[in-house]
Design a protein that fits this description.
Elements lengths: L11 E5 L3 H12 L3 E5 L3 H8 L10 H10 L3 E4 L2 H6 L3 E4 L14 H12 L8 E5 L7 H9 L6 E5 L9 H6 L5 E3 L3 H10 L8 E3 L1 H31 L4 H8 L23 H14 L5 H4 L1 H17 L5 E5 L14 H11 L3 E5 L10 H10 L1 H4 L6 H7 L2 E4 L5 H9 L4 E3 L16
Parallel strand pairs: 1-2, 1-4, 2-3, 4-5, 5-6, 7-8, 9-10, 9-11, 11-12
Bound molecules: nicotinamide-adenine-dinucleotide.
Length: 437
């Protein structure tokens, strides 16, 4: 968009595939001022769009198709070659259906990529190919790009679509997320510019990251739905209004509907989450109620611990320092700390281990925690190192199993020892966008 006039810089866009995604994309882009040719191998869809109608029902779509065709900004063709002739950008919107075994069907994507490649000889204008279809991470690089035969005119970008059928036009015009991924900044900028009049800040990421974000979003939505359904099912069996439970849960914007707990890291533990999940699942089983999602959470947590153990066992060193013993920072509660299980495996496999936790100093803890260390895990208590620097001096590698304070993080990094970040705490963080209430 021109920052002075507020107008978009119209681009010539070919939308490849006029299904739900392609047709909505084509009509909405024409509406915001681009010149768009929609391409489909289905003559009916092409004829319908040319006649100013929508090839399927989607609220608000027919009006936009009609408007775009009448204004001369939207047309349609069965010829991909013709559509690409003047195009600056080609948006791939073909289907990627499930195969019988669950694999993603890429036949349409391969075919359309080949057709783009076949149209390239004789071309002298650059073309940005943006994949809006949902594809496995790596598909742009492994499937689409090789088809382009190394043409210097073509760049490939991932620009996944997030619209929902039934609200597709509104979702397009008021996007909740705009993701553009690619290696070439100019191509990424060009695709982001297509949407510059829409009220959304583009998220610019790496190519594979963009492809993965689409899967993460859909998996998250599916998990949310199943979570609410399982809570509702259990609540119903217990004579409780599940909708009220979930409505109230959603009022918590600090821990529930928020960024909290949504970062890859270490397994969870502590005195509440494992115990309460076990109790919930047990209660449901007494009611003969299957809650596969909730039942899978503790096994999933174990799998995360197993991955950390495998990583630690793969280290080419015998002397492993571990930062953090409690299940999270700022507590001395050791109940069900996954670090204890990690340490027990490492010791069992003959590794030499020393542990430092700023809140667990043997001389200073007391009561149930002291008894727990003395009685339940005396073998772990013996590994405790009161001095961080002594542990760092001794270790060949350091597992960071708890989020360190900024001061401790600086000391960990200054030690020069290889740090294995199990909690995802040491990565530089990009500034997070605000979460609206
Ligand atoms: N439908 C949704 O709500 C939605 C939302 C977000 C993302 N997606 C993803 O977007 C992609 C498209 O989904 P859809 O629902 O629009 O699919 P669709 O099956 O409705 O449409 C695909 C269209 O592509 C056309 N096509 C296939 N190969 C072609 C070729 N070589 N040349 C020209 N046209 C060709 C088909 O004829 C068809 O009209 C999928 O990857 C899907 O997972 C869908």
């Amino acid at each position: 968009m021109d920052p002075v006039s507020g107008e978009i810089n119209p681009q010539q866009i070919a939308v490849l595939g006029l299904g739900y995604v392609g047709c909505v994309t084509a009509a909405c882009l024409a509406h915001v001022g681009h010149r768009v040719v929609g391409v489909d191998r289905d003559q009916f869809k092409v004829d319908t769009v040319r006649a100013g109608r929508a090839p399927f029902f989607e609220p608000g779509l027919e009006e936009l198709v009609q408007e775009g065709v009448a204004a001369g900004r939207l047309t349609a063709s069965v010829s991909l070659r013709d559509a690409l002739a003047d195009a600056d950008v080609a948006l791939i919107c073909v289907g990627t259906p499930s195969e019988k075994n669950g694999n993603l069907g890429l036949d349409q994507l391969r075919r359309v990529s080949q057709e783009i490649a076949e149209s390239l000889p004789g071309r002298n204008k650059p073309l940005v190919v943006a994949v809006r279809s949902t594809v496995y991470p790596g598909t742009c690089e492994d499937v689409v790009l090789p088809e382009m035969g190394g043409s210097p005119l073509v760049s490939v970008v991932s620009n996944p679509e997030f619209l929902r059928e039934g609200a597709a036009v509104r979702d397009f015009m008021e996007p909740s997320l705009l993701v553009v991924g690619g290696a070439l900044p100019a191509a990424v900028r060009q695709v982001a510019a297509i949407y510059s009049s829409l009220p959304v800040e583009p998220s610019i990421v790496a190519l594979r990251t963009a492809e993965m974000i689409k899967y993460a979003c859909n998996a998250f939505h599916a998990v949310k739905i199943s979570f609410a359904n399982e809570i509702g099912a259990l609540a119903g069996e217990l004579g409780i209004d599940g909708a009220e439970v979930m409505d109230t849960l959603c009022r918590d914007h600090a821990l529930n509907i928020s960024r909290a707990y949504l970062k890859p890291g270490f397994a969870f533990g502590g005195s509440c989450l494992p115990k309460d999940l076990r109790a919930l699942v047990y209660r449901a089983s007494r009611l003969d109620l299957k809650l596969p999602l909730l039942e899978s959470v503790l096994p999933s947590n174990h799998a995360q611990l197993d991955r950390a153990i495998a990583l630690a066992l793969d280290l080419p060193s015998e002397r492993i320092g571990v930062f953090g013993l409690a299940f999270k920072e700022n507590t001395d509660d050791l109940r069900e700390s996954p670090v204890v299980l990690l340490l027990e495996t490492l010791i069992g496999k003959g590794r030499k281990v020393r542990v430092h936790d700023p809140h667990i100093q043997l001389g200073e803890i007391y009561g149930s925690n002291q008894r727990y260390i003395m009685n339940a895990i005396p073998h772990i208590g013996n590994l405790l190192d009161g001095q961080l620097d002594a542990m760092l001096e001794w270790a060949d590698h350091v597992l960071v199993a708890q989020k360190p304070s900024p001061e401790i993080q600086a000391r960990l990094e200054a030690s020069g020892k290889p740090l294995i970040d199990l909690v995802g705490a040491l990565r530089p963080r990009s500034a997070p966008a605000p979460i609206p209430a």
